[in-house]
Structure formats: structure tokens, C-alpha cells
């Protein structure tokens, strides 16, 4: 039986930020499967217009076994309706379940203290501080495309490949060398696929 990775989708989520990692997690060689979650279990639409019928509602995640939570960015993370997601993140942190956030989802983590004491990144430090007024983790901020610190992965919104690479390595979906080759193929094109 495949292990489950949850991707939490808000309305107006950034579809391109999780497309690479979702495809690799669903690949035949992977021991993982992707399941999607929305607040109420109802369909949501991405910024790109993709409508998704989720597998679970937020409430249903309390009854399932999963091995990672992925939070793509989007236009809704600063809205009050996303506040309940902090309980799911807190559950993950308390149970050593990896959490990966990209773009504005990093701001969501910053708003609720989940970045404190962890190396992390976001779109920029200023962007993070503006969106998360209680954030005080400047000393742990790294200006990089993607940062992993233990079970936390954060990424800049322009880094879906680096985000995917970090997730695939954390979950050991393939050997690191194969993941790096996959990354170079999508980053640089087929010209480097034989390296």
C-alpha cells in the first residue's frame, strides 16, 4: 500500500508550484500517492483555472494516516478562512510529519510561528515580514530558492523545481543522484540529461 502525501489546496492556489512534485510522487516507481485536501471538501479552482475535486476535507484529515503535508502558495493564504489550517500544521509538527510550504504558504507559516527556530526562506524577507506581523525569525531566514531544515521545507514562489527536489529527497523517492539528474533535466533541458 502506498504512503499518502497530502496537498492542501486553497481556492486560487498556485497550480504550477506543486505540479512537478505531484507528478513524481504519483509515478509508478514511487511508494507515495498524492491526496488533496480543501477546507470543506468541496472543489476549488487554481489561479490557472484548474478545478480540483479533493479527496478530503480538513476535518477528515484527523482520521487518516499521512506522511507529509504540502502547502502550495496562492491568493487565499492571508484570508481568515485559512486560519483552521494551522491546526493541521501543528498536528504535523507535533508528530514529526514533514511540512513543505512555498510562496505565500510560507507567509502563512510565519503568521503562526511555525518558522521560529527553523532555517527557512520565502519570496523575500520583506515580503514575509509584511505578511506575517508576528514573525521574528530574521536570524534563521536564508535568501535561497529552497531551504530544508529537518522536517520543514520552504521555497520561494519562483522555485517549484527546487521545492520538488527537496521534497523528493526528504521522502527518498529515488536516490539523490537520480533526483538531481531529474532536476537538471527540467531546469536545463534535455541537453544535460546524459550527464
Automatic annotation (TrEMBL):
Q: Which Pfam families match?
A: DJ-1_PfpI
Highest taxon of the lineage: Bacteria
Any single GO molecular-function term of the entry would be:
transferase activity
Q: Which Gene3D superfamilies match?
A: 3.40.50.880
| Occurrences of domain DJ-1/PfpI (ranges) | 3-169
A GO cellular component term found in this entry reads:
cytoplasm
Q: Which UniProt keywords apply?
A: Glutamine amidotransferase, Transferase
Signal peptide stretch:
none
Q: Which InterPro entries match?
A: Class_I_gatase-like, DJ-1/PfpI, Prot/Nucl_acid_deglycase
- Return the protein name: Glutamine amidotransferase
Q: Which organism is it from?
A: Terribacillus saccharophilus
Amino acid at each position: 500500500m502506498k504512503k499518502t502525501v497530502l496537498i492542501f489546496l486553497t481556492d486560487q492556489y498556485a497550480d504550477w508550484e506543486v505540479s512537478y512534485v505531484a507528478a513524481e510522487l504519483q509515478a509508478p516507481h514511487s511508494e507515495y500517492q498524492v491526496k488533496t485536501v480543501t477546507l470543506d471538501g468541496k472543489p476549488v479552482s487554481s489561479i490557472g483555472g484548474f478545478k480540483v475535486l479533493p479527496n478530503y476535507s480538513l476535518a477528515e484529515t484527523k482520521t487518516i494516516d499521512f506522511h507529509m503535508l504540502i502547502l502550495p502558495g496562492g491568493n487565499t493564504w492571508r484570508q481568515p478562512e485559512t486560519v483552521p489550517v494551522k491546526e493541521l500544521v501543528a498536528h504535523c509538527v507535533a508528530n514529526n510529519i514533514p511540512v513543505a510550504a512555498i510562496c505565500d504558504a510560507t507567509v502563512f507559516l510565519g503568521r503562526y510561528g511555525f518558522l521560529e527556530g527553523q532555517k527557512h526562506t520565502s519570496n523575500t524577507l520583506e515580503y514575509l515580514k509584511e505578511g506575517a506581523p508576528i514573525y521574528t525569525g530574521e536570524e534563521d531566514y536564508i535568501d535561497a530558492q529552497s531551504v530544508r531544515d529537518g522536517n520543514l521545507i520552504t521555497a520561494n514562489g519562483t522555485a517549484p523545481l527546487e521545492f520538488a527536489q527537496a521534497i523528493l529527497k526528504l521522502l527518498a523517492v529515488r536516490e539523490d543522484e537520480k533526483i538531481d539528474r531529474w532536476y537538471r533535466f527540467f531546469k536545463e533541458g534535455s541537453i544535460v540529461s546524459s550527464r
